[in-house]
Amino acid sequence: MKQLDKNDIGEARKTEQVLGQPRSSRRNAGFFGRFLKTAGLYCSLALASCTFETSGISRPDINDARQDTVAADSTRKDAGKDFSADAMHDLRLPDIQSPDAKPQWWNTNWNNRVVCNVNTDVSTNLTDFPAHCILDTATLISASKINGDCSDIRVIGPDETTQLSHEIESGTCNSANTVVWFKISKTNGKQNYCARIYYGNPSASDGQNVTDVWTQMSDVWHLGETAGNTFYSSTGKNNFALSYGSITKLSGTKCKFGGCISTGSGTLSVTSSSYVSLPNMTVRCWVNQTDKSGYQDIIGQRDSDPLLYWLLYTNTSNGVLSFHGSSQFPSTTPLPQNTWAHALARVSGSSLSEVFMDGGNIFSSSAYSYKNSASSLNLSGYAGGAERFQGSIDECRISKTAVSDDWIKAEYGQYYVLGKEEKKP
Predict the structure, then answer these.
(1) Strand ranges in 176-217 using DSSP code E only, listed in sequence order
(2) Would 164 disulfide with which of 29, 136, 182, 247, CB 3.0-4.6 Å?
(3) Dist CA 219 CA 395 (whole Å)
(4) By three-state DSSP, how is residue 208 classified?
């Protein structure tokens, strides 16, 4: 977003100084349109309730410019007024609220909130999409603004009424990287979706509805557990347990999200027949590979028989990201080294398998089929700890559907902007 300077504001003021033009015409073609064009600011009319300060424009900029707009037309009844209290009314800037306006507040038992403006960066409206924001709850807890177990966190939709199902990623409360996942019933294309995260109610009990966040998934593993060697699926279905070797638990900036594992000598497994011979499936993990030598399994369902499994992995050809079904389907694109990448495979019917990396399709095969009789679903290697992944793994998910291209792009590219903390009026 372009940062406004005095010259930008001056140009916006000049373009509005047209005497005798009807007020309605000025609204359509005057300061509002020219000012936003000059500022390079994108505002979504669908999100009129989402009000917070942005880095590209401040309230004094708007008020000063609007003062000059009115002063240029002495015939207006409101000429000469101070517009700090009603700038929103005439300019109709949906994402900026006057400092004198009383904001809507979901529940007065909660003392604080922050706006989380989510954008999927795709034009499609996605249904029941799991979005995320990251909060510094360590600072909030030390200031006694939030409960020590984060139990008072609530996520509220743009209407200031609807409570969204949310999950606080295990092991991240009371840290600078508290990951809050929440379900958006329908995203807003490439426009921002305005959620508000409320906190500051000492008497609140835990409000999470974890499984409902993930209704589009069969299994979701955040891999952030801090105790023991069991890693739980947020859908409550298949839980991974350490079956071979050892793993290292990581957190904070070493992970893509809240917590992750380094799998150099370890394999996680769960005995499951959930993903045998599925007609449609999407499987993905965030991975950070540190060594590309040899075959390295990311996630798959296999025993020792090389013909009876499915597998997302990198092969010996320069760490190329690949998928295995009835045979090997290697792409020509290697995983990047020492950085996080989104690795994904999609199975559509009985004849198509595709490999995606960082939201883009890098390989397709129309010769796909498989008959999987393996008993173990494995993360990093398979029975006996062979072909372990070298590096870190975070946020693995499996869907029993072939999700859309836009869904894949949104999972990879969803971003958010946090507003400043607001206090109960």
Answers:
(1) 178-186, 193-199
(2) 182
(3) 10
(4) coil
Alpha helix positions (H), 40-91: 59-71, 87-91
Query: Which domains are present in the chain?
Result: 6-91 (no CATH), 112-215+412-423 (no CATH), 219-402 (2.60.120.200)
In this predicted structure, the answer to whether residue 5 has a pLDDT above a threshold of 70 is no
Cα(382)–Cα(366) distance, integer angstroms: 27
Q: In the numeric block, which tokens belong to residue 260?
A: 């992750």
Note whether 185 and 126 are within 8 A (CB): no
Which residue from 389, 208, 185 is spatially nearest to 286, judged by alpha carbons? Answer: 389
Q: Is 60 exceeded by the pLDDT of residue 30?
A: no
Residues 324-331 have a mean pLDDT of 67
Which phi and psi (to 5°) does residue 34 adopt? -70, -35
- Work out the percent of the chain whose per-residue pLDDT is above 90: 52
Q: Which of 90-94, 246-250, 304-308, 403-407 is predicted most confidently?
A: 403-407
Q: Is the dihedral of CA 44, 98, 57, 53 positive or negative?
A: negative
Pairwise CA distance, residues 215 & 164, whole Å: 13
CB 244 within 8 A of CB 356: no
Q: Say which residue, 312 or 349, is predicted with more confidence.
A: 312
* In contact, 267 and 380? CB cutoff 8 Å: yes
Token pair 């894949």 in the structure block, residue: 408
Distance CA 191, CA 216 (A): 22
Query: What single string gives the DSSP state of each residue in 209-245?
Result: -HHHHTTT-SEEE-----SSSEE-BTTSS--EEEEES
